[in-house]
Amino acid sequence: MRDEQKTKIELIGQLKALRQRVAQLEASEAEQKRIQERLRESKKRIENILNFYPDIIVVTDLSGKIVECNRAAPHLLRLSTTGELVGKSAFDLISPEDREKVRAEMRKILSQGYIEGAEYTLLWPDGSKFPAEVSGTLIRDFLGNPTSFILIMKDLARQKKAEQTLRKSMHELGERVKELNCLYGIAQLTDRHDGLEELLEGTLELIPPAWQYPGITCARITLEDQIFKTSNFRETAWKQSSDIVVQDKKVGTVEVFYLEEKPKSHEGPFLKEESSLLDAITERLARIVELKGTERALRESREKLQNVLASSPDAITVSDLKGNIIECNQATLDLHGFSSKDEIIGKNAFDFIAPKDHKRALENMKKTIKEDSVKDVEYTFLNKDGSEFPAELSASIIRDSAGRPTSFVAITKDITERRRAEKVLQDSERRYRLLADNVTDVIWTTDMNLNLTYISPSVTHLMGYSLEEVMALRLAEILVPDSFLSVMKVFEEERSAGSKKGRGPRRRPTLELEVNCKDGSTVWTETKMTYLRDAYGKTMGISGVTRDITLRKKMEKRLVEYTRKLTARNRQLRVETGRARRAEEASKREQEKLRESQQRYRALFEGAAEGILVADIETKQFKYANPAICQMLGYNEEELKRMGMRNIHPKEDLDYVISEFEAQSRGEKTLSPSIPCLRKDGTTIYADINAAKVSMDGREYNLGLFKDITRRRQAEKKMEEYAEELAEKNEELKVETEKAKEADRLKSEFLASVSHEIRTPLSTIKGATYLLNKSSLSEEQRRFCSMIRDSGEHLLRIINDILDLARIEAGQARLEEKELPLKELVEKTVFGFELRAKRKGLELNTIYPSDLPLEIRADEGKLSQVLTNLVDNALKFTQQGKVEVKLEKLADLNIRLQVKDTGIGISEQKLSRIFEKFYQVDGTSRRKYEGTGLGLTIVRELAKLMAGKIEARSRLGKGSTFSFTFPYSAAKQRMVQAEDQAKPKTKQQLRKEINILIAEDDDSGYYIMESLLDDYTTSRAVDGREVLEKIREKDYDLVLMDIQMPEMDGLKATRKIREKDSTLPIIALTAKAMKGDRESCLEAGCSDYLSKPIEPEELIAKVSQYLPRKARQKENSPPGSNSQ
C-alpha cells in the first residue's frame, strides 16, 4: 500500500516536472514551433490520461474550494456533471466526523508539501458513506508560492484496477518523454550545425532511442542522391517510413526498421505516436531543405531590388533588424547631402534621425516587425552637415520563407515645404478658432451653395442642437421660410454685383432672421454678413455673426404695444376732459387705470436689458433714461437729463444720427446699425438703434432702443482680417496642390516602369511554357509546366491588383459603359473557375431570376473584375461545401450580385476591416492562403466608381456572403442582328510568303514570338531605326512593334512609317499596362494593341486578324492544304 502511495506521489511529481518542461519548450525560439505542437499534443494526452484515470482527482484552492476535477470524479461521486462539483468545498465530500482531521492534513500539506495514504470516510449525495484513501500534494507557482492542492481519492474496492491503470500510464509517460527528447535534440542540432550532412547524421543517432524498442531499431535517411544510415542498419520487413516533401515535391524519405519481429497490437508493430513523431522529423528536415532554396531566391530578389532602388525618385534604404544600413539608392544620398554610398552603408539608420525621435523610431521598428509595416511616420532627419529637416517615412518588414523577419525596407520623403505651409495654415486657423470658440455670438461660414462649412460652439445654446446635428442641416432647414428668402435675396444681389465690372466697396448686410430650434420653437437673431472672396476677388461664400435678439424683439413688441395703448389712452383722456364734470367718478377710475399702466411701463422701462433714451422731438434734449443706457454711456440719469443727442454722438455723425431717428419715426426704417456713441470717459462705443415716435404728457418724443455692438464690431474686424489671410493661404495651397499632382504623375511613371520590367520577362516565361507544353512531355514535366504557368498567372494578378489600385487612387479609372448580355458575362466569368472548384471538390452554382434583363448598359470590364475577385476569394477560403453566385433584379434599375460560400468565415470584430488595403483576416490566413490583400479593396473602389455599394456578412466557421448592388441603364432595342466579330479561330499553317517584322530588343522575348509564329517568315529589328531600315529594304505584311526600345522607341517609329504607308498593319507590344497606353499607341498610328505578358493564343489570333487578304484566302483553302 505504501509503495502504491509513493508511486502516486512520484506520478504527481513527474506530472509537475513534465508541465515545467512543457512550459520551457513553449518558450523556445520560433524554430521550435513544431516541437511546441508536439508538446501541446503530449500535454493533451496527459490531460486525457488524467481524465481517464479511474480514481477521483480534484484541484482545490488553499481554502478547499474545488476549481478543477477529472472526468471520473463526478461519476464516482454519483453526480451528473463536473459543474455540480466545481465550486463546491472539498470538505462537503468528507463525512462530518472526519472533516477536522482533513483540515489538519491540509495544514500538514502546506508545511511538508504532501500527504499519502490517509483513509477517510466520504459521502454519496444520498448521505450514504464509503471508505476512501486520500493522497495530496501542494502546487506552487514559479516563485515558490503555494497556489493550490491536488487530491487523489481512491475507492479502496477499486484499488487493484487503479494499480493496473497506473502502471500503463507510467509506461506511456515514459514513451512520451522519449519522443520529446528526440524532438528537442533535433532542435539543438539545428542550432549547432549549419551543414545539412552533419544535421542528418545527428538526427539518425536520435531516432532509435525515441522508439519503444531502441536496441533493435535502426534508421535510414535518403535525400535526393544522398543516403545516411545508422551503424546497425539492416533492411527488414518490419518498417515504417515518411516522405520529405518540399513545395508538394518529394525530395527524400526517412525510414525506421525493427531488426527482429515484435508482436502486433491493433496499431501494428509501431505505435501511432511513433508514426506522428516520424512525420514531425520529416517536416523539420523539409523546412531545412526549403530554406536553402529560399536563400537562392533571396539573392535573385536582391538583384531585382537594386534595379528598383536605382529608378525610384524617393529615398529608399534597406537595413538589418538592428538598423544597420546595407543598401540605399541615389535619392538617399541626395536627401542627406552625401556623394557616395560608402558614406552611408554600414552606418545605423538612427545616425540620420535626430536624437529626440530615437525612442519613437525604436518603437516603430518593433511595430513594423509585429504588423509588417508602418506608413507616413514623421521624423526629424539629419543632413551630412548636421542640419535638421522634417521627412515622412514608410517602412515594411522583409521575411524569409519561414516567416522570420530578416530586414527592413524604408521609403523617405522630404516634407519641409509641406510642413512650412501646414504650420502657417494651422497658426492662422488656431487664432480664428480661439476667437470663434470663445464669443457668445454664433460665428459661421458657408460655401457658394449656402452649405455650412463652419459654425462656432455657441450655436448649441442658441438652437439646442449639437454641433454635428447643425452641420448636417441645410440653411433652408435652419431658417424659417421668410428669413431664408431674405438671405437668398441679398446673396443673389451679391452674385449679380460680383459679375459686373467696377463693383463698389464690399457690402456687409445686416438682417433680422428667425431661426428654428430643436424643440420646435423659434428665436429671433440679428445677423451681420460678410462675403468671403478669394485672391482674385471672386465670392467663395459667406461668413456671419449671429446674435440672439429674441428678448429685444419681445421688448420692442411690448413697448410698441404699450406705446400704442398709451397714445390711445391719452387721446381718450382729451376727449373725456370736456365730460369730466359729468363723469367725475368715471374719470377717476380711468386715471387709476392710467397710473397702473404707467407703473407697468416704468417697470418695463427700468428693467430693460438694452439702453432706452426718450428725447424731446424738437430740442433733442433727453427726458428719460433707463439704468441700462446709463451703464452703457457711463453717466447717471440726472446727468443724461441735462444732456441731449448732440452730447452723446460725434459731431461729424450727428446729422446722420438725427436723420436716421427721423426716418425711423416716420416708419421708413426699423434699424440704424453701428451708430457711434460717446461715453463719459471719452471712449467711443457702437450701438444698433431702434427708434420710434411716442406721445407722453401731451407731447411727442423720440424713443431710442440702444444695443451695444462694440465687441461684435471688433470680432467682425478680426474676421475680415482672417478672410484676407485665408485668401493668401488658399493661393499657397494651390501651389502645394500642383506639387502633389506632379508627385502623382511621377508615381504613375514609376509604376509603369516597374510593370514593364516585370511583364517583359513574364511574357517570355508564359510563351516558353506554352511552347513547351505543346511538345512531347512526360506527365511530371507537364505538371512542372502547369506550376510555372500558374505561378506566372498568380504574379500577373498581383501586378494587376497593384496597378488597378494605383489607377483608382490616382483618379485615372473611368467608366466605359456599353450594352452587354449580363447573363453571358456572368456565365463566362464563373466558367473560368469551374475547373478550380472541381479540383477542390466544391459545388459552383449560378442562380438567375426570371425577370433578369437580357441586356444592360454598364462597364463590362469593371463588372467582370468585381465578380472575378469575389468568386476567387470565395473559392480560396472554402475547403468543402459550395460557392453560389446569385443575381437579383431590384427596384429603380438596380441589380444585386451576391456571392455566398460555406468557407472559414470572418469574425465580427474583423469583418469591418476586410476592405482595407493589405488586410488579411489573420496571420495564419496570410501564410495559408496566397494573395496581396488588395482584391477586396479594389472591389470596394470599383463599387464606388460604378455608383454601387459592396456589403459583407459572415460568421466565423459558417461562411461569408458578399453583395454588390449597382445601378444599370436599360439597353436600346436592337433592330438588326449585329455581325459576329468573334469567329472561332482555326489553327492553320500559313505559307512562308507571309513576312512579319518583329521589333523586340529583348532576346528571350523575340525567341518566344519567333517560335509561336514559326509558320510565318519572320525578321527581327532591335530598335526603331532598324525597323525603318528593314521596311525600306523589304515589303512586310505585318509589324509587331515593341514600344520601349533603345535609340528610337516604337511610337516614334510608327509615326515615321505612317508618313509613307497608312495601310501596313502595326500591332503595338507594351509592358507598361498603365491608363492611356492603348490610346497613345492608337494615336501614334498603331492598328491594334497587346499588353505584356502576351497570351500565346491571343498573339496568334491577333496576327491572323490582321493578315492581308491573300493570307486569309490561303488560310481558308480546302482540306489538303497543309492545315494542322
What would you say about this model in short?
The chain is α+β, with helices and mostly antiparallel strands and 1124 residues long. The chain contains 34 helices and 37 strands. The protein has 8 domains: 46 residues; 110 residues, PAS domain (Beta-Lactamase), CATH 3.30.450; 107 residues, no CATH class; 103 residues, PAS domain (Beta-Lactamase, 2-Layer Sandwich); 120 residues, Beta-Lactamase (2-Layer Sandwich); 170 residues, Beta-Lactamase, CATH 3.30.450; 150 residues, 2-Layer Sandwich (Heat Shock Protein 90), CATH 3.30.565; 112 residues, Rossmann fold (3-Layer(aba) Sandwich).
Main attributes?
1124 residues, alpha+beta, Beta-Lactamase, 5-stranded antiparallel sheet, 37 strands, extended
The overall strand count is: 37
Major β-sheet, in short? 5 strands, antiparallel
Task: Calculate the terminal CA-CA distance, rounded to whole Å.
Answer: 91 Å
Please state how the strands of the largest beta sheet are arranged side by side: 2-1-5-4-3
Low-confidence stretches: 501-505, 973-991, 1113-1124
Query: What integer value in Å does the Rg equal?
Result: 46 Å
Mean pLDDT: 79
Beta-strand content: 15-25%
In DSSP terms (H or I, runs of 4 or more residues), the helix count works out at 34
Question: CATH superfamily name of the largest domain?
Answer: PAS domain
Named CATH topology of the largest domain: Beta-Lactamase
Q: Provide the domain count.
A: 8
CATH class type of the largest domain: Alpha Beta
Question: What would you say the CATH architecture of the largest domain is?
Answer: 2-Layer Sandwich
Shape, principal axes of CA atoms: extended
Helix content: 40-55%
Structural class: alpha+beta
